Structures are given as structure tokens and as C-alpha cells.
Amino acid sequence: MVRTAILVGAIALLTGCGGSSRVELPNAEVPARLESVRVQVRDARGLAIRNVALEDYVLATVLSEVDPSSRDAALLERMYEVQAIISRTYAVAHRDRHAHEGFDLCAGTHCQLYEPVRLRSSRWTAIARDAVARTRGELLWFGGAPAEPLFHADCGGRTSSAATVWGGAAPSYLAGGRDGGPARDAHVNWTFDTRLADLRRALNSDERTTVGAALRGVEIASRDDAGRAARITLRGTRSVTVRGEVFREAVTRALGTRTLRSALFTLTRSGDRIVFTGRGFGHGVGLC
Predict the structure, then answer these.
(1) N or C: more exposed end of the chain, with fewer CB within 10 A?
(2) Rounded CA gap, 283 and 166, in Å?
(3) Are 85 and 63 in contact (CB under 8 A)?
(4) Domain coordinates in residue numbering, the chain
(5) For residues 75 and 128, what is the distance between their CA atoms, to the nearest angstrom?
(6) Residue-wise pLDDT tens digits, 184-234
(7) What DSSP string runs through 221-241?
């Protein structure tokens, strides 16, 4: 049985940083057949698939995804408990994401960051291990199925609706809203300066953003209510308009996760270079 305080805390976070709507999520334990996951990892010999006990996977992802900003022991315990339930629910809900490739989940941010080395290197391993044990097998449910507990590092002041970011229908708890938590100056500000030639190569690595032999410009076609670039127009040999998150995914997959950190940005062109200035880190939907 999920303890009330943890469940309510997870619900409040899941609705967004400043979300005020209450969503009732019944709790249930992980079915026995889902007690392990196949994770694709990269080791010294290249890519490999490892069969990992679900609770061990959750512990590693919790340590990999959460960088505590507080040293308060009670707050850390609660934070890791909430993240354990979130991470476990995400793993179960997305277990078949890479089934066509012969495994369940990847070790990168496409699924959840899984860096088991953190078990040895993190100073918070003992606290996180206890939190995972206290919430063992607990999931968040919505509408009779595991919820979609999306999370990211920093919303930049406001979360966005999942429907706006990726399209389709969004559950009520992923509607987006204003961040009622940290002050504005607590959010990450960043700058990404790149050559058009490098950006073109990154875009051409994804069939959704391919521009061909030349990239002449990048334009923000529209923004959502949170200020994120909802649609981006790419002017090139092939011109195309894509979702802002599709653009960000193509860039970060090719050039690194710490390049275009979010879709909450402005851009300026200077000769053969383009400069993105933004705030936040991640897709901007759900928990931050």
C-alpha cells in the first residue's frame, strides 16, 4: 500500500511544478512478470543488453536522474521516495519501448538515465536505496493503467502541455502550468553557439528534420503558452516545419544533451553561426 504522504506528493509533482489540479491515482504493485527489465548499455566492448532486476534498475535511475539541491535528510528521503515511484512507473509503462530492437529500455535520456556506476560513486546511495526499498513495487496508476509520469530537470518557470509538445491527447495531469516552486533565478540559463554547417549535419541525421545540402536559416514559427518554441521552420535545400521538441531531439542526439537544453529559447543569426539563448533543461512536461 502506498503511504498517503508519498502518493499525494507524487500527484502534486506529476501535475507540473505549479499544478494545482488533483488527480486520483489508485495504487497497485508491479506484476511478477515485470520484476526485471532488459536494458541496453554501453560498456568497454560496445553495446550490450543486460537483464536487470526492476528494483535495482530503479535505484540506479533515481541516482542518475536526481541531483539533490538540498542537504536536508528528511527532504532527501521524501524526494527519493517520490522519484522511485515515478521511475518505477515509467519503466513499467514503457517496458516495450525498444521491443523491436530486442530489449526493453535504453540507458539514455530517451528512456531514463541509467548509470549503475552511481551506486558506487554517489554520496546519496544509502538514502536512495532505503527510499527504493520503502516504496518497493509501488506504481502510480491512472484510468486502470500505469500513469505517464514524465519528468525533466528544469521547466524554466513554466511547464507545457504534453499535447503541445508531442501532439495527440494529453492526460489532465500533463496539462502544464506555472512553476510555483523555486524563484525565477533558480532556473538554468544557457547559451548554445554553433556553426550552421554543424547544425545542418545534426538535422540531416534525423529523417524528420533533414534539410539536404544547405541550411539557410532557422525560424521560430510559433510558441506555446509557456513560451517554448512549438513549431520550428528549417529553411534549406529542403524546407520543413517541425515541432520544437523534434528539433531539439535531433540536435541533442547528434551534438550532445547539453547543447540545446530546452525549447524555451530565442535565437540570433551571425554570419555562418547561430546562437540559441534559453532557460530550463528538458522537454518541459510533467515533473521538474
Answers:
(1) N
(2) 10
(3) no
(4) 4-149, 153-288
(5) 12
(6) 556 789 999 999 999 999 999 999 999 999 999 999 999 999 999 999 999
(7) EEE-TTS-EEEEEEEESS-EE
Residue 236 dihedral angles phi and psi, to the nearest 5°: -155, -165
From the CB of residue 76, how many other CB atoms can be counted at a distance below 10 Å? Answer: 17
CA distance 211 to 122: 42
Q: Hey, what's the cell of 191? A: 547559451
User: Hey, what's the torsion of the CAs at 16, 18, 24, 25, to 10 degrees?
Assistant: 30
Q: Which long-range contacts (CB under 8 A, 24 or more apart) does 3-10 make?
A: 5/78, 6/78, 6/81, 6/82, 6/85, 6/135, 6/138, 7/85, 7/140, 9/78, 9/81, 9/82, 10/82, 10/85, 10/86, 10/140, 10/149
Q: Cell triple for residue 120?
A: 558506487
What is the tally of helices (H) and strands (E) in the chain? Answer: 8, 12
Task: Choose among 268, 231, 236, 235: nearest CA to 248.
Answer: 231
Report which residue type is found at 284: G
Cα separation, 130 vs 253, in Å, equals 34
**What is the C-alpha to C-alpha distance for residues 215 and 166, in angstroms, rounded to an integer?**
24
For cell 527489465, name the residue. Answer: 37
Model confidence, pTM: 0.78
Residue 31: alpha-carbon gap to chain centroid: 25
| Burial bucket for residue 203 (CB in 10 Å: 0-12, 13-18, 19+) | buried
